[in-house]
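Can anyone check this?
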Amino acid sequence: MLGWDMTAALAMATALGISPRAVVELLPGIEAAMVRGMTKQNSQTDLSGD
């Protein structure tokens, strides 16, 4: 993850009242799930010809 991504995530968490420690612990798993979802969506789009 790029440094500015983590900075943005921590800033958003702080604004929402979420513990920065929770973000640091949870973000890698969330990011991995997002990448898997985007990869799946892209492969489906490529197959449909859109």
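Reply from J.R.: I decoded it. The chain has two helices and no strands.
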